[in-house]
Amino acid sequence: MRHHRTLRLLALATPLIAVLFAGLIGSVVIAIAGKNPLAVYKTMVSFSLGRFDSIALILFRSTPLLISAVAVSIGFRANLFNIGVEGQYFLGSFFAAWVGFSLRGLPAIVHLPLAIAAAMLGGMVWALVPALLRVRRGVHEVITTIMMNSVAFSMVHWLIYVFLDVQQTTVPGMGSPRMRTPMLLETVRMPTLHSLLNPLLSPLGLEIPRHVYLNYFFPVAIALAFAVNYLIRRTPLGLEVRAVGHNPEAAETQGIDPNSVRLKAFMLSAAVAGLAGLSDLLSYYGYLDIDFPKGYGFTGIAVALLGKNSPAGMILSAFLMSFLRRGAEGAQVLEGIPMDTAVILEGVMILAIVVASSVFGRYALAWQKKEARAHADQ
Amino acid sequence: MDATPVISLRSIVKTFPGVVANRDINLDITHEIHAIVGENGAGKSTLMKILSGLTRPDSGEIWLRGKRVVLTGPGHALALGIGMVHQHFMLVGRFTVAENVILGVEPSRRGVLDIATARSRVLALCRQYGMELDPDARIQDLPVGLQQRVEILKVLYRGAEVLILDEPTAVLAPREVADLFSNLRALKESGKTIVFISHKLDEVLDIAGRISVLRRGQMIGTVKAEDATREEIARMMVGRPVLFSLDKPRVTPGAALLDIKELSVEGRLGNLACDRVSLSVRSGEIYGIAGVEGNGQTELVEAVTGIRKSKSGSTSIMGTHAEGLTPAAIRQLGLAHIPEDRHKRGLVLEMSVLENFLLGKQRRSNYVLQHAINTREARSQASRAVKDFDVRVASLDVAGGSLSGGNQQKLILSRELETGPKVIIAAQPMRGLDVAASEFVRSVLLKARQDGCAILLVSADLEELMALSDRIGVMFRGRLVAEIDRDEATVERVGQYMVGTTAEVAR
């Protein structure tokens, strides 16, 4: 089976080709901006990877992207396009924050898991309407989830206002109002990895500095990517999800109810989506405010596409996206290249991966067909 | 007969990566109806694509009336007088016959479409070749046989002298086949050369002057139809003798396992696709449903298997009421379903052979171990079933879509029959399969019959149906218009019911 190895190598090569192609287009953009592309790329690399605290920061920032990508990938498996991760993690974050500041007197061992469960519930609540509209009425989830995103932003802002911490409504010493929830209790805060990793790192002369909030959600996200993959690949439900994703008629003929499978997949996707904001909320900020980070849901779509729904692929893609953003910050400060270059790189990369994957997919199938025919002839 | 052949193919070679589709093929086609037969994958279509300019050969020569030509595309081939009538019609449903015929070569006057000229030219063509067609009828209102006539007319309108027909009878009812054949004979009389591709041997023997047989990309030989027998051609196609007279032992039918009473089902457009159908299939019996496609067979099967809701009436499987149950619950009663469209309903092409085998059984306790699929058990069951049903696969992990049609169907059979069902619904199980694979499917169905299954067999192929069934029911416009014992059924009699010419209802 030498061919299988070749095929696998090619499958690995397609995202790489896409990344290289994007780099090429990026060079043109940078050249048009009047800078030397090689110098800019060099700055991006040295700025983001040159220092250990920057690497730790990249890992911290990749956490929400990975969680969001895992959520999107669950939908993809069932041929559902959950664009609503954005809104779902906003709601999830609010639910977690609510549990975090309102339930007092719980030990951390209860309080933190409760907040996490609340976040998953929040995501699911927000996906319920699009999911039901899809399975009951056939309304396409892309439309409904986009609409729900818009509603989510405004609604969460309104909810923050409702639960506004009166003591913090103005920035001390300044007149401007501050829209944020009360501080979350200590019992709900996710600990950072410093106490675990720094003793191991110090013999190497490395240290995660206090200002980088790399926390336990990072290993959780990685475990989640593998766990979801196991669920999809190895369990009966996973088989049903993939069958419905590829060919709902065939699944139905075999006695699998496509709509019930779609509903389960949608809810699972949304539950994971609800977690995407927690690394920031429970470790870094400790409160939910009007400036809570947006966009993880959309970047997650890119990460899932680039990683082709595989756990290793999505982990690497999340690192890559996070690295690009970090590098772009460096390029902006040190080379005067606008941050938007990174956005262009992302966009081109996604386009390239979509094209490359479909070309490769056709090629792989043709190859398998040829082998099958050769085998049948024997 | 003319001394120089109309078309002469010399040493045609065409390879695709890893496969030789055409191996050194020589073929002379004179002014005649020339049939080309062969199993699926024998290289018929590749050869015809080469002849109609769609594909270029790796080497070899095409000679047209004594002159060597190099075809650069289908347009070029047509300009030289070679036209292809495709199996899948390429017609615009909302356009009229005349509009479809002229599409692409519209006559115009000062840039304005001249529909009057178009109409009269189309009418003249119809008269010339004795084809009845209303130039103003809309394609969507015409039956399939007439649509095919429009396709032929399109090619004639563009000046074709050589017509290539790719499996033209696949979609036709017996009477439509007879009409097509008389049209083809008339065309031949008026000087056209016809290349006819098929794997239905009786038809080929009926219509063709000479028959060329391809096997695995090689030209096995050309025989005169009047001297040839069905068995001889089948042996040339398959490479070994093929049994036609089926070894069909007498089985005394037992109790009715599948009972359908007054079942009415709505079609996709809300029409009454299946109208008060009643039938019952007994243990050890194959009940054949004959009918031109689209007369309610699909809806009947979908309603019985639970995929589609029925409007009224009842079905029961082994005495248990089954209407209104989910497909999964109906399967639990002991029903197996071989769907009519392998790619749409039979398999998930993107998933592996193993996963396709598991589909529908993924929650059975013997396949689940601590919430996950028990891969070892699944593999051992799948490889046993795959071996039992002669599915030829390199491994259980290749995609279902990479298998040949015959192997896909065998994979479906292995999945459906491995569990020992009591009622089998088989819709078009031999469609598109080559001689060897059909032979296998037939033998599997007959074995199930002997084992006491009740089998409902839906087929558009009357010969096939007559060979297998113990009783035949004919569907026309959603109604079961006749039910005939096998011993009293003839192709002519069933064929008449199929096109609705006999108003009598047999029961």
Distance between the termini of chain B: 53 Å
Distance between the termini of chain A: 16 Å
Largest sheet of chain B: 6 strands, mixed
Name the CATH superfamily classification of the largest domain in chain B: P-loop containing nucleotide triphosphate hydrolases
- How many β-strands of chain A, per DSSP? 0
Structure in words:
The complex is a heterodimer of chains A (378) and B (507). With 378 residues, chain A is mainly alpha-helical. Chain A has 2 domains: 1-33 and 338-378; 55-335, Orthogonal Bundle (ABC transporter involved in vitamin B12 uptake, BtuC), CATH 1.10.3470. Chain A has helices at 2-32, 37-49, 52-77, 85-102, 108-137, 141-162, 194-201, 217-234, 236-246, 248-253, 258-273, 278-285, 296-306, 311-335, 340-377. A 6-stranded mixed sheet of chain B has the order 6-9-10-3-11-12, with helices on both faces. A 6-stranded mixed sheet of chain B has the order 18-21-22-15-23-24, with helices on both faces. In chain B, strand 7 and strand 8 (112-113) form a beta hairpin. The A-B interface holds A 1, 230, 234-236, 239-240, 242-243, 246-247, 249-257, 365-366, 368-377 and B 16-19, 41, 216, 305, 307, 326-331, 337, 339, 344-351, 355, 358-360, 362-363, 367-368, 371-373, 375, 392-395, 398-399, 401-404, 407.
